[in-house]
Amino acid sequence: MGVGLVATQRVGVATDADPLVLERGAALAPVEIAYETYGALSAARDNVVVVCHALTGDAHAAGHHGDPARRGWWDNLIGPGRALDTDRFHVVCANLLGGCRGTTGPSSTDPATGAAYGLDFPLLTMGDLVTGHRAVLAHLGVERVHAVVGGSLGGMQALEWALAHPGEVERAVLVAASSRLTADSIALSAVARHAIMADPDFCGGQYAAHGRRPDHGLSVARRMAHITYVSEELLEQKFGREQVDDGPPRLGTHFQVESYLDHQAQIFLERFDALSYLYLTRVMDYFDPFAVPDRLARLRGAGTEVTLVSFDSDRRFGTPHSRRIHEHLRAAGVPSEHTELASPYGHDSFLLTPPGYHDLVAAALAR
Questions:
Q1: Using one digit for the tens of pLDDT, what is the confidence trace for 180-224?
Q2: 74 shares a domain with 114
Q3: Which domain holds residue 81?
Q4: Is 64 a catalytic residue?
Q5: Are 37 and 66 members of one domain?
Q6: Residues 191 and 329 in one domain
Q7: Same domain, 164 and 19
Q8: Helical (H) or strand (E) element with 191
Q9: Considering 60, 75, 107, 152, which one is annotated as catalytic?
Q10: Which of the following is catalytic: 276, 314, 321, 343?
Q11: What is the C-alpha end-to-end distance of the chain, expressed in Å?
């Protein structure tokens, strides 16, 4: 059984009198953040586990909003008796700053103009995303967390949090994460952003004011990214060279794998915004926390334990990414454990249930 019916909540964390100041100096106000919680908060407020979502995730990590068939994106991990056991832990998941699912982002209204911020929204850093999470915890009256857990971009946030605010995090669990994108990963995101911004319906980022959406560009970005989220082995196994019909050769969709990408693009357009895609991918490009002096030394003295999980079929943030984090931490004397797991699912393994994965997470939280 999962956590059942849940509700998304929203909290204002900045006003004109007290704006949210970003790392590069810009100030945002007002700022609203969407979040969900699962499980009871202990009287001592010491059982909090923060879940950080990936690039296209949101605050709805577990349970359902009225339709039991449509459950949160990490529902298999969160709930009574699961790795993030809601009989023990108070689990908190907030939508990212810059997002489009209830949290202030580039498609939100700029109070100075009355229109969407668009490309006038300030560029964000990983530290800014963590600032948003910490604001939600301040609202809940929580100063220190039992653990921060995240996959992909979520794992990068967990790492940033542990490094920047080491006294606040007892454990950090990083799954299929990275501490520095390779040129290959940056290039993939650059092509995706180009597809969005070159779409005639992008309108310089003010597409909402024109009643338009850069759906073509965003769908191209999603198709390309999704290929890197699954393994080559899985695509071959599921689709091979099967065709959707027996018709003659054509330039349009004909192979089953093309139809699959069409479907993934369509459902993505129904739930995500192009501007958030631009801004959040750029956060990942610039992330390089070990280049900042003294951060590891501060973490060493905090007693934070780090657990890293990678998957052998992940072609986005494969094992070398996790190994790099692990080696930096161990060299600095920070308690760190890294495990590579076998999985046929590629990068998306962090959302699924490959053998041993959930047991590793549960063990990390139990230590």
A1: 999 999 999 999 999 999 999 999 999 999 999 999 999 999 999
A2: yes
A3: 9-181+289-366
A4: no
A5: yes
A6: no
A7: yes
A8: helix 183-197
A9: 152
A10: 314
A11: 25
